[in-house]
Amino acid sequence: MSQMSSGAMPPPRYVIAPAPRKPPVSVPRVEESPPPSEPSSEKLAYSLQGAAERLDVSLSTLRRAIDAGEIRSTKLGRRRIIPAQALEDFLAPKPN
């Protein structure tokens, strides 16, 4: 190893430059969709209470219609749900 003389320059110090900044990314704005005309039309299925409210009948009237086979329903675990299409079918005019 060589010894440094008193007049010799110290070894250079390395400076780490910060990483170059990336330009900001422009995110396109997502336009909000207009509210649906009928919020309940987007549901796929209803609870018994929700279906009774939509049909404007009592819960017991709805249960009688389900028991009579007039309205189709499905068990989902312990819950019974009514597909929205089943309500539409029930309300559709029936041939005489």
UniProtKB/TrEMBL annotation:
Residues 46-92 form the Helix-turn-helix domain. Residues 1-44 are annotated as: Disordered. SUPFAM superfamilies: Putative DNA-binding domain. It comes from the Bacteria. Pfam families: HTH_17. This is Helix-turn-helix domain-containing protein. It comes from Aporhodopirellula aestuarii. The lineage of its organism: Bacteria, Pseudomonadati, Planctomycetota, Planctomycetia, Pirellulales.
